[in-house]
Amino acid sequence: MPSRRTHTKSRLGCLQCKQRRVKCDEKMPRCGSCAKHNIACSYTGSSVNRLLLSRSVYNNNQQSLDIEERSASESSYFSPTSSYSQSPPNTGIGKLSRTSPSSLEPLDILSNLIDRNPQFTSDLYMRDLELMHHYSTQTYRTWSEAPELQEIWKTVIPKEALAHHFLMHGLLALSALHLSQINSGDKGPSQTMYMEIATRHQSLALSSFRPELNNITPLNCNALFAFSSILSIIAFASSQCTGIEPGMAPVEEILRAFSLLRGVYEILHTAWDWIEKGQLGLLVRHEGTSTGDTVPAEASAALDYLDELNNDNRESEARETYCSAIRKLRESFENFYTRCQQVRSATAWPITVPHAYITLLKSRQPMALVILAHYCVILRSLNECWWLTGWSEKLVEEIYQSLDASWRPSIHWPVKVVGWTG
């Protein structure tokens, strides 16, 4: 007796083929038998399960099942009002062993991973991702020469920014300014675009930063300190990317940067103990590595000359103020040359000088301008730092033009070092 011909049972066939007791080829959305007889064709079971087990979804270039055809359990899961943490429905993936692996299209399984909830949209802000990539690969390196401090700006502060949006906007603003400065040579659309992006992020950062200053706590002090440091860089960097603001002289512009540095420092000084004991403590405790060098004789002689000039100054009521400003400037020169603290030298002096000196500088007192000209030597030594490029030349030029002929010899050394020829 001849053996019975083997055949594969159709377990997922359409209702019509089952009623007629014929084999269904399970093609979707209409099987071959129903198409041949030109009758309706319908299936049972989970639509996702059918999608996974179909062998012809991609081959026949058919669309996937409409959302309306999903089962009630699926509809509740993908509903816009449902919770994102809700457990997904049973997709029947555990039953795949019933079907031969050769009957599955490899990419069909991926279709089950697509979330069709309309409330979950693709919100990848590619420009902001570009800014964060640039910050984490380039900008963070410009904060300090010390590797241990660079690591804090590379890893610790970006992580802190995830919990404080004003800090994240500050990092993105700084990165955009850096990119604007990099593209400043061609004065093309890229520079303008990055400058506009920087302004937008800076505005968003400041709007949420100011309220935080009214309630400094151990939870937000690190983020506030980091952002205040970013603000100081932004204050210097903005003019490098946009040029001197119309109607604003270089001395006036740097005074604005000084005021920002001093104001934020005074506010955060109340939280200094918290900051020192936290993850950013190294930024304020770091003493720098000794370089083994000494302050060049020419620089020491110039600072000694400032002391002599101040002692001969007729403005006796301001002599002590100028003496303090010169002493702090000498400390900055020592940190610059003898310790690995070049960048800090540029930002520390304007914070530590007496407030009375800033007042004298605002009124363009000759001795105050002469001291500022000597500070420009530090700025000139950091001219390769993108946010300080060009500051020394602009300041020395204005100071020279502001002084009368009797005071101009007092800034001979800064003029020579900066390289301004007039």
UniProtKB/TrEMBL annotation:
Annotated stretches, region: Disordered: 69-101
CDD domains listed in its UniProt record: GAL4 (cd00067)
A Pfam family assignment: Fungal_trans_2
Domain of life where this protein originates: Eukaryota
GO molecular function, a single term: zinc ion binding
Biased composition (Low complexity): 73-89
Name of the protein described by the UniProt record: Zn(2)-C6 fungal-type domain-containing protein
Species: Lipomyces starkeyi NRRL Y-11557
